Amino acid sequence: MALTIVTGSDNAGHGHKSALKELLENDPRVGKVIDVGVAGREDNELYPNIAVAAAEKVAAGEADRALLVCGTGLGVAIAANKVSGIRAVTAHDLYSVQRSVLSNNAQVLCMGERVIGLELAKELVKVWLDLEFDPESSSAAKVHAICAYDGSLDK
Ligand code: RB5
């Protein structure tokens, strides 16, 4: 089934966010893209507010995943992970992107515009769209333990 994906960034990540949003909007694996800002480089909304708004949509079941960009990809991941039920990672390489879903069932991928080139980011996002967590895998008990800790088991 086509994915609903939330995109978001602060002004430091707006360039990559816009390009990746366009990529998602043109990918047949994506049914809907919900952008939670920022609207442009001159928009100074703080990254924690953007990241939490995106993560809350995923936690509420309004979206399957979120793709967040800031300068480093670190702040947005820290903020998104404060939302119960959210597993957000910063990943700029193929293996980490793959394992974020296959091992950790992460719903939120975070990248840093000051860290990764746009073309590599695009390729990683294309791979990310095909990844699916296997609830029968040996990783399931570990993800279950995370959810038990943050009280999101029934979400
Ligand atoms: C710029 O504000 C920078 O601190 C931010 O984009 C992000 O990298 C924080 O983690």
UniProtKB/TrEMBL annotation:
Record-linked Gene3D superfamilies: Sugar-phosphate isomerase, RpiB/LacA/LacB
Record GO terms (molecular function): intramolecular oxidoreductase activity, interconverting aldoses and ketoses
Organism superkingdom: Bacteria
Alphabetically ordered keywords of this record: Isomerase
Entry's Gene Ontology BP terms: carbohydrate catabolic process; carbohydrate utilization; cellular response to carbohydrate stimulus
Pathway of action: Carbohydrate metabolism; erythritol degradation; Carbohydrate metabolism; D-threitol degradation
Pfam families attached to this UniProt entry: LacAB_rpiB
Recorded catalytic activity of this chain's protein: D-erythrulose 4-phosphate = D-erythrose 4-phosphate
EC numbers for this chain: 5.3.1.34
Listed InterPro entries: Rib-5-P_Isoase_Actino, RpiB_LacA_LacB, RpiB_LacA_LacB_sf, SPI_LacAB/RpiB
Enzyme class: isomerase
Family membership: Belongs to the LacAB/RpiB family.
Full protein name: D-erythrulose 4-phosphate isomerase
Native source organism of the sequence: Brachybacterium paraconglomeratum
